Amino acid sequence: MERSFLIRQPSVLVFLGLLALFTIGATVLSDGYGLGLMSTSFVKILGKTLCLCLVAIAMDLVWGYCGILSLGHFAFFGLGGYMIGMWLMWARTKDIVIASMATAELPATAGEIREAIGTQIFGVVGGSRIPAIWAFADSLAIQLILVLLVPGLLALVFGWLAFRSRVTGVYLSILTQAMTLALSLYLFQNDSGLRGNNGLSGLQNIPGLTDLSQSVISIWFLWASALALALGYLGTAWVVSGKFGHVIRAIRDDEARIRFLGYSVEAYKLVVFVLSALIAAVAGALYYPQAGIINPAEVAPIASIYLAVWVAIGGRGRIYGAVIGAALVSLLSSWFTGGQAPDIPLGFYTVRWVDWWQVLLGLGFVLVTLYAPRGIGGMFDRLFRKDVS
Amino acid sequence: MTGMIHDASSMNALLEVTSVSVSFDGFRAINNLSFQIGGHELRAIIGPNGAGKTTFMDIVTGKTRPDSGRVRFGEQSLDLLKLRESDIARAGIGRKFQRPTVFEAQSVFDNLLMALKKDRSPFAVLRHRTGAEDRTRIEEIAAEVGLAEQLHRRSGELSHGQKQWLEIGMLLAQDPKLLLVDEPAAGMTLGEREHTTDLLKAAARTRAVIVVEHDMEFVRRLDCQVTVLHEGSVLAEGSLDHVTANPDVIDVYLGR
């Protein structure tokens, strides 16, 4: 009989163990539940990093395993964030509006409350009319479903059109860039219904939990992100370990050949693309409440390109590679661009890392591509495993 | 003689290609070609370079769409021209390419596993767990093609001949009704050729096998009916001795 896939893939257990240790460690050091040695903002950075690791896994599934270089995955990530952001913003504004109207002599009608919410949320884009897409914003359950449904449908329609026409390689990459650019440009418009370039803000305040301090909420989100990452890792490892994983790797390596074995390449690509879009959407829905704000710049084409860079640096075609790449590069990035890295005065010129980090990242990407095409994860393989596929 | 073959096979032709033509940029690669093969038959297709041998296979497997003509397959007389490559493969046509194309990053076992005749839809494959039955079948096929010892090696590490056998093994695993084999003996040693001949002959006992080959010595060893293609149509058909005695064939091969 078949051995359990966990036994065949010891790296999954190692990863889950390390992730548990990390989460416990962060909790113990945190302000909310522990010794207070770690600031709440740092807990949020860690929580967000876990979400970025999750979207990197999605990218690795679609690119590293199936060979589809999608440069538009932040569209799904961002849409997941927008969908949960709508409920967060609506429900919180509603609480505030009701509280402020409670002192009035006459109890406010439902219509008045709606109008006040509309003014509060959409005043910045010059209106108080509530757009139709906010119809379900009052319901957490429906918005949670939309977190999966909207990005999933976008991936399904886009993928169906692209794969059916057998668009592959660099052409597909360009199409995915166009998709995320189009979404970003649309969201930038004030009449998009999602507050244009203001985006959705105040997302760190969780409705109904206003009594709790951010130090506690940040830890809850860290746990939720760790759980999502663990499930995403486990699920992806399961998907790629079986026959399905063999078939999608075969599609990556020689798509014409697997077609002559009777596999419908388009159907497989579509399944993988939608699945990875769903993972990205969940990651986004957990990321933005920790970031506090989402705006259209988040789904700009460059974000998705960074994602590909993380996965390339970490080593594609191995899930831990994606996690290593995303964690390392995004943490380094926030260190360099956050002003913590000391500037280097050269006398005639001062190297400011905020500006030069991009150069460093680009250089790192070039070096990895040239000298370690399997990325950091590939170096791990050389240490621990003999057979690498 | 030629007439007799046609009469015998038209009764229960497995593949029936009728008046097929295709041009690429004005060049007629296939010109009003008609061809038939029965259910349990080994057939060699020979012809000089550019005779249309590979294009013929491309048409049957759905890679190339002809400009005109009909291609029917199987008992239900499926119209292959309406099907996609993967549907044609599932209908029971297996193809081995000229260059051995196996999935080099994956093991011999996994290559055979993917080829095994099973439900190929993504969700069925997602739920698939490799059972004892699959293992036994894969081991049998590996033994048949002489790769029993190599099952867990990465197929990229195999020798050229072994890759060819793996590909033949993958075709057998697919259990097709019709097997199209493009130059199986290219680059093989004498011993490897003999093994390949045996494999193809054994396969043809239960299914139709079409072998495209340049090498006359190999064709002689196959000991089967031969179809000679020239400029995209059938020039002659019959036993190897019969066609090589044909003055037209001699002209084509030796030049005028």
TrEMBL record, chain A:
Kindly state which keywords UniProt assigns to this record, in alphabetical order: Cell membrane, Membrane, Transmembrane, Transmembrane helix
Q: Does the keyword Cell membrane apply?
A: yes
- Say where the protein is mainly found: membrane
Q: Which residues cross the membrane?
A: 12-30, 42-63, 70-90, 140-163, 170-188, 217-240, 267-287, 293-312, 319-336, 356-376
Which GO molecular function terms does the record list? branched-chain amino acid transmembrane transporter activity
| A cellular-component GO term for this protein | plasma membrane
InterPro entries in UniProt: ABC_transp_permease (IPR001851), ABC_transptr_urea_perm_UrtC (IPR017778), LivM-like (IPR043428)
Indicate yes or no for the key word Transmembrane helix: yes
Q: What are the boundaries of the signal sequence? A: none
Its placement in the membrane is given as: Multi-pass membrane protein
* Record protein name field: Amino acid/amide ABC transporter membrane protein 2 (HAAT family)
The organism is Hoeflea marina
From TrEMBL, chain B:
- Choose one Gene Ontology CC annotation of this protein and give it: plasma membrane
UniProt keywords (A-Z) are:
ATP-binding, Nucleotide-binding, Transport
Q: Which InterPro entries match?
A: AAA+_ATPase (IPR003593), ABC_AA/LPS_Transport (IPR051120), ABC_transporter-like_ATP-bd (IPR003439), ABC_transptr_urea_ATP-bd_UrtD (IPR017781), BCA_ABC_TP_C (IPR032823), P-loop_NTPase (IPR027417)
Q: Name one GO molecular function term.
A: ATP binding
**Matching SUPFAM superfamilies:** P-loop containing nucleoside triphosphate hydrolases
Start and end residues of each ABC transporter domain? 15-256
Keyword tRNA processing belongs to the record: no
Q: Which domain of life is it from?
A: Bacteria
Concerning CDD domains, the annotation shows: ABC_Mj1267_LivG_branched
Q: Report whether ATP-binding shows up as a keyword of the record.
A: yes
Q: Per its UniProt record, what PANTHER family does this chain match?
A: CONSERVED COMPONENT OF ABC TRANSPORTER FOR NATURAL AMINO ACIDS-RELATED (PTHR45772), HIGH-AFFINITY BRANCHED-CHAIN AMINO ACID TRANSPORT ATP-BINDING PROTEIN (PTHR45772:SF8)
NCBIfam families, from UniProt?
urea_trans_UrtD
The protein here is known as: Urea transport system ATP-binding protein
Please tell me the species this chain comes from.
Answer: Hoeflea marina
